[in-house]
Amino acid sequence: MATTVLQSADAPADAPVGATGAACCAPPVTAPLGVEDATALARSMKALADPTRLRLLSLVAAHEGGEACVCDLTDPVGLSQPTVSHHLKVLVDAGLLTRDKRGVWAYYALVPGALDALAGRLATRLGG
Amino acid sequence: MATTVLQSADAPADAPVGATGAACCAPPVTAPLGVEDATALARSMKALADPTRLRLLSLVAAHEGGEACVCDLTDPVGLSQPTVSHHLKVLVDAGLLTRDKRGVWAYYALVPGALDALAGRLATRLGG
Question: What PANTHER family does the record tag this protein with (chains A, B) (predicted)?
Answer without folding.
Answer: ARSENICAL RESISTANCE OPERON REPRESSOR, TRANSCRIPTIONAL REGULATOR, ARSR FAMILY
